[in-house]
Write a structure and sequence with these properties.
The protein folds into three domains: about 140 residues, no CATH class; about 190 residues, no CATH class; about 80 residues, no CATH class. The chain is built from 18 helices and six strands. The chain has a six-stranded parallel β-sheet with strand order 2-3-4-1-6-5, with helices on both faces. β3, α14 and β4 form a beta-alpha-beta unit. α5 runs parallel beside α12, α11 packs across α12 and α16 packs antiparallel against α17. InterPro entries: P-loop_NTPase.
């Protein structure tokens, strides 16, 4: 598969991602790397190195065996979904809700996941809807009610200490206020929602919400106050909203951790869940990375594997706390060509809680293709039979090698363009750029002269 060209060793049964996720593509278990304190892995490399292609290959190889979610952080869909209710939704919350919804339908080993902790937070920010009436809040909150309970698995619903967070509960409680003369954002609306979340919960479920939302900044151990402040921070926007969004991401990861750490999860679930963030250098991607890195620096531990892309070789300026380049300490890195992944650990000295976010990162330097891999790809795409060592084949191989620099995506495009191309007798390497590009799946590949697309690198 061209998707995996150059990544075979990273993706195979004993490769880096099998060990990072704790399970091989075949389903066999693997001793996991780096636990319980996990680094965030950032793929680095210039255009044409295949960062996005590698994330898609990880998803395709592993998602049938472990819950791996691929998210395109540059997609406008999350902003588009948030726009109708800007005080109750954001691109970040919509992305997190999508992650949760996909995992709610996970059908692999251990069954689907539920997100009652996360649900409590997003339901509370629903009080920021434009109308602010009980009916409007109920309608907004109902977008999320399916996140609070697992699908039935062999006739059973696990996690029953969350009973009471059921479909219709919020609407039934909030609509009792309908017809009353309430101002938008009335405290009565928030109180009704909080009653819906707490009053019918079993003691363990109530204790979990108290533990999590009692720890919200300013809550002083009071979960109802924490949820109110979270909703107010979200409506305030700016840095306050980022604090609320970060906390919601933490609640989602805590739901995943609970699903694995429970007695039934310990027996049934294998490996580690993964979140793959393509275009993580975008504003949405940076917010998600900043949130998880900040939490882990502060001591929060979870088993969610976070893998993102980075355009800059140092992983991104936000990782280094505004330090000038000459004072930056590079994150740990892994070059696949060097062999086994390196040991990784976080700083443990007195200043660890103030270390730059880069301290929690492992950079994976994208591999270049070897000469053998490059030749195999060009030969595989040749449509005209030619003996090994034939003049045209040698010239095509040399041209692809020199112009691509071994960048996998560029090799694929150049080799495809040269699939039935004959180098002119007086050609130089750049003449291959005049080859018509016909690569299935790329728009416009039937154009008669694809010079600009042939040399396009992309990710």
């Amino acid at each position: 598969m061209c998707e995996e060209l150059g990544f075979e060793r990273l993706l195979d049964e004993e490769g880096f991602f099998a060990r990072l996720l704790g399970r091989a593509p075949s389903g066999a278990g693997r001793d996991p790397l780096y636990g319980p304190d996990l680094p965030v892995v950032l793929l680095t490399g210039g255009p044409g190195m295949g960062k996005g292609r590698l994330l898609r290959a990880v998803r395709d190889r592993f998602a049938a065996k472990v819950p791996v979610i691929h998210l395109d952080c540059a997609s406008p869909v999350y902003t588009d979904r948030a726009d109708p209710e800007p005080d109750a939704r954001s691109a970040t919350t919509e992305a997190l809700v999508e992650v949760a919804r996909r995992l709610c339908t996970w059908q692999g080993t251990g069954g689907s996941f539920a997100f009652p902790r996360f649900f409590a937070g997003v339901a509370m920010i629903a009080t920021g809807v434009a109308e602010g009436t009980p009916e409007a809040v109920a309608t907004e909150a109902e977008r999320y009610e399916g996140l609070a309970q697992r699908q039935r698995l062999r006739g059973l619903v696990t996690g029953d200490f969350w009973r009471g967070v059921l479909r219709g509960t919020i609407r039934n409680l909030l609509t009792t206020l309908s017809g009353q003369a309430l101002d938008p954002y009335s405290a009565a609306v928030s109180n009704a929602l909080l009653d819906a979340l707490f009053e019918r919960l079993a003691p363990r479920g109530r204790a979990e919400l108290e533990r999590i939302y009692g720890a919200y900044p300013g809550a002083a151990g009071q979960p109802r106050i924490g949820l109110r402040i979270l909703a107010a921070d979200f409506r305030a926007g700016g840095e306050a909203r980022e604090v609320a969004e970060s906390f919601l991401f933490r609640a989602l990861r805590e739901d995943l951790e609970a699903a694995y750490a429970s007695p039934s999860g310990w027996l049934r679930r294998v490996g580690r869940p993964g979140l793959l963030l393509d275009h993580a250098e975008s504003p949405l991607g940076e917010r998600l990375l900043r949130a998880v890195l900040t939490d882990r620096r502060a001591g929060q531990r979870d088993r969610v594997v976070i893998v993102g892309t980075a355009r800059r070789p140092d992983g991104g300026a936000f990782l280094h706390g505004g330090l000038p380049p000459q004072e930056v300490t590079p994150p740990a890195e892994y070059r696949p060509g060097d062999g086994a992944p390196p040991a990784w650990s976080r700083r443990s000295d007195a200043g660890a809680d103030r270390a730059p976010l880069a301290d929690g990162v492992l950079l994976l330097r994208m591999p270049l293709l070897t000469g053998d891999q490059l030749r195999r790809e060009t030969v595989r795409r040749q449509r005209r039979a030619e003996p090994e060592g034939g003049t045209n084949r040698r010239r095509i191989d040399a041209a692809v090698a020199r112009l691509s620099g071994g960048r996998p995506h560029t090799v694929i495009r150049l080799a495809a363009a040269a699939s039935d191309f004959r180098m002119p007798a007086d050609a130089n390497d750049r003449d291959i750029l005049d080859a018509p590009l016909r690569l299935p799946g790329l728009p416009g590949d039937d154009a008669p002269n694809a010079r600009s697309r042939t040399c396009c690198c992309g990710n």
